[in-house]
Amino acid sequence: MRSTRWLALLPLALLTALVAVPLSRLSTDGASALSLAFLSDPYYRWRLAWSLAQALATCGLALLFGLPIAWTLARFDFPGRRWLLRLLMLPFVMPTLVAAMGVLALFGPQGLTGIHGQDTPWLLLYGNLFYNLPLLVRSAQEGFARIPANRLMAARSLGATPWRVFWRVELPGAMPWICSALCLIFLYCFSAFGLALILGGQRYATVEVEIYTLVAYELNLSDASALALSVLAVASLVAFGYAWLERGLARPMRGQVAQRCVPSGWRQCALLALAVGLLVLLALAPLAAIAWRALWAGPAWRALADPEVWAALANTARFTALALGGACLFGLAHAFAARRSVLLGTLAFLPYAVSPVCVAFGLLLVYPRLSASLTLLIGAYTLLAYPFVARGMSATLDAVPAHLPQAARTLGASTWRVVWRVLLPIAAPALRRGMAFAAATALGEFAVTLFLSRPEWMTLTTLIYQRLGRPGALNQDSALVLSCLLMLLAMVAFVLIEWQREGDDDVAGR
């Protein structure tokens, strides 16, 4: 539709002002600061090496645990399977601070397990796995489920064992889904901030935490720019690989897919029990630990009567509502403008490829006078949230048969009437899901808020972080109670995302 092409100006203006210009400034400052002395500093080399190592280790662990779980969910049908897939959406909408508090509730100084894992790399790796294992499970499960049944039957008829069928037929067929999920997991872990800030400690903090420390506490913008440039370089390479791998998902597999069967025999039952047990341990246990610890918090529940908590809750709701409005505006504009533009459709991935810390730091460099303005804060929230609306709507609009809007036009409907009466009703489920993801993103945003917010704009995430930094068991327990409150708010978004349909296998958005 020609009359909707001007809508491309809205997302392009947002991406230019809040991504392109800040990243250009970061690249300029970082290139000038990226000297041999900087690269030879063992402290910064350790930060870069550990950031890469923990991201790669998380990918390996997710692959090790996720593949058998995904294969089991794709091949077996059992009571509660649909609800288990729905529960896998919980980590997608959980704020990072809630995930960190869940890990501490299990393995912290007063954790339920009695295992003191502080000041070790395992806390961060477990937190990364909690956050990203469902991503690989859902993606690989979709890949395994789409393999045509005739391929499996042909391999078995030729005498291949089940193990050989898996390695020679099923795994190669699902590899595009698996590789794309691994690229996203690497990006999420390499640019992790909230989890690394709480769980990494002084020794195992990532580059993102170091950038925040250099800016907020040391005012060392030169080294921060050089580190940010390093992060952008690595993230750009991985994002390019992800975009290249995603093309494999567009190649349809012909043939009827294999039907799921009820597990029979002790081996299949044991595999199913192992898969469910791993999911509970790695993806659901931290959330259950938060709820259990919060129930026994005792006097900490009085924090809910604190005016500071209600002010933070009001700010969280206000910022989420404003960001959701902006996400709808820019997401819909991007989706309709990208219907005939592959380039615009690709640009919707841009906010995924850059970390919130780099975005916030770049905004501080480019717009120093707006560093404490509500406009810049909401703009950053919108930037991180609107791609969920844009991507979901774009996929749905591309699938709309061309004859439907054409029939409306032949009956005299204007372009905007076609959009309002034909396209939007068809795409309404995708719009609701995108809005729910956008709301969950804004609800748990942490890095941008730390960089760009004022003290009077404290949100629940920043309040939890403050309570964790104060001494005393009561402050730790009140942080758990507030995390439980934030988890409940995120679950509302989960219901909005997943309650409308049974088979949601979209794993790209978080």
TrEMBL record:
It holds the Pfam family BPD_transp_1. Gene3D superfamilies: MetI-like (1.10.3720.10). Residues 48-240, 313-497 form the ABC transmembrane type-1 domain. SUPFAM superfamilies: MetI-like. The chain crosses the membrane at residues 49-71, 83-108, 120-137, 174-199, 224-245, 269-292, 312-335, 342-364, 370-389, 434-453, 478-497. InterPro entries: MetI-like, MetI-like_sf. It is found in: Cell inner membrane; Cell membrane. It is a multi-pass membrane protein. GO terms for cellular component: plasma membrane. Coiled coil: none annotated. Keywords: Cell inner membrane, Cell membrane, Membrane, Transmembrane, Transmembrane helix, Transport. GO terms for biological process: transmembrane transport. CDD domains: TM_PBP2. The keyword Phosphoprotein does not apply. Belongs to the binding-protein-dependent transport system permease family. This is Thiamine transport system permease protein. It comes from Paludibacterium purpuratum.
